[in-house]
Amino acid sequence: MQEIAAGFERFRREAFPPRAELFRRLATTHTPNALFIGCSDARVVPELITQREPGELFVIRTAGNLVPPHGQGADGVAASIEYAVNALGVADIIVCGHSACGAMTALASGTDMSSLPATADWLRHADASQALLDASQQGEERIAALIRFNVAAQLTNLRTHPSVARALAREELALHGWVYDIGSGDIETVDTTTGTVTPLTA
Ligand SMILES: [Zn+2]
């Protein structure tokens, strides 16, 4: 914890001053143009891998970058999606999976989740992704396939949210699927129709 507090001191001393004008503007305005939905994994830092400054990305991070489909009742993920689309008017939503994802590894390897009941319950939102796995895929290949299928499945879930469906119908919103590789720093884009992946280019 001491290191975190020391980090804050360094932020105030070194990172804040050169951005003082930006933060002064952001104190009253917030107009990010993209929503980034990533995994809670500490190695996947949305602003770092997209080189965004504060105020530029609206971010939701969940275990396994899962997006529950639209349903009844209060749901923090649904509220954040609705706010990003309806109130902030983001033009793009990125769902980003990543290599070595603990959630996807547990699902692909059938790990016993009895000591993690809330996690097991949450990971049911990846059921559609798991259904696409081929029995012949094993080990690392199976995990990599699930990570890709999961990105596509979460984009499908995203489309069930009324705010997203409406913005897509008006062609005011575009959805993107990415897989980030931690070891190489590469990003692949996932084609949600064909399931094929291609390197991300600017
Ligand atoms: Zn993960």
TrEMBL record:
Q: Quote the Gene3D superfamilies the UniProt record gives.
A: Carbonic anhydrase
* Lipid metabolism in keyword set: no
Q: Offer an example of a GO molecular function term for this protein.
A: zinc ion binding
Q: How is the cofactor bound?
A: Binds 1 zinc ion per subunit.
As cofactor, the record names: Zn(2+)
Signal peptide limits: none
Q: Which SUPFAM superfamilies match?
A: beta-carbonic anhydrase, cab
According to UniProt, the reaction catalysed is: hydrogencarbonate + H(+) = CO2 + H2O
Keyword check for rRNA processing = no
Which residue stretches, if any, does this entry annotate as coiled coil?
A: none
Entry superkingdom: Bacteria
- What are the record keywords, sorted? Lyase, Metal-binding, Zinc
InterPro entries on file: Beta_CA_cladeB (IPR045066), Carbonic_anhydrase (IPR001765), Carbonic_anhydrase_CS (IPR015892), Carbonic_anhydrase_sf (IPR036874)
Which Enzyme Commission number(s) are listed? 4.2.1.1
Tell me one GO biological process term: carbon utilization
Where on this chain does Zn(2+) bind? 39, 41, 98, 101
Similarity section: Belongs to the beta-class carbonic anhydrase family.
Query: What does this gene product do?
Result: Reversible hydration of carbon dioxide. Catalyzes the reversible hydration of carbon dioxide to form bicarbonate.
**Which named protein is this?**
Carbonic anhydrase
The source organism is: Streptomyces finlayi
At the highest ranks, the source species' classification is: Bacteria, Bacillati, Actinomycetota, Actinomycetes, Kitasatosporales
Q: Which gene encodes it?
A: cynT
